[in-house]
Write a structure and sequence with these properties.
alpha/beta; Glutaredoxin; two-stranded antiparallel ribbon
Length: 179
Amino acid sequence: MSKMTMFAMLVLLLAPLTGCTAEEEVEVTKFPMFSAVADDGQTYSDARMEGGAYIVVFSAEWCNSPCYTTMHAIWAAKAELPVLVMSTDPAENASGVTLSEWHASADAHDDDETTGDTGVSLTTYAFMKGSDVATALDITRPGSLAFVNAAGEVTYLHEGRMDSTEDILTRWAEAGGAL
C-alpha cells in the first residue's frame, strides 16, 4: 500500500473525530439592565452592583413560602451577603403591602412569638420592584434565584425553594463570591 493511500485512509478514519476535542462554547446570560428604588430609599442598578457578586431573589409581596424560607436559608448559609429581592408582581404595593412592610414581614419569618425570639434581620437585603427583570430572564414564578458574578453574568438560575446551605455556598462561590 502506498504512503498516499495510507494517508488518505487515516484522514478518512479521523475525520469524524474533528471537533471532539474542542472546548464547548458556554452560553453566557447577562443579567438585564435595571434601576429600582428599594425599601431603604436607595437606588440599586446593574451599574451599582457591577464589580461584585450578588444574589437576586425573585419574590412577590404576597409570597411567604418558598420565598421567605429561601431568603433565611441564604442568610443562614452566609450572613450579610448582597441580596436584592425583586418583586415579580408589577402592581405598585401588591396586595396592599409596601416594600418596607414586605421587608419587615420577611424579617419576621423566623420570629418565635412564644419565646419572644426575634430571629435574624435581613439587614443587607434590599426589597424592590423587578417584574421587568424577571420577564427578561423568563422567570415566571416567585421563589426563583439568580447568582450573578462581578461582570454581571448570571452564573446560576434556580426556580423554586433553595434551602441547602451547601448548594447556596457552592453557587455563591461559582459566582465569584467570597466564602
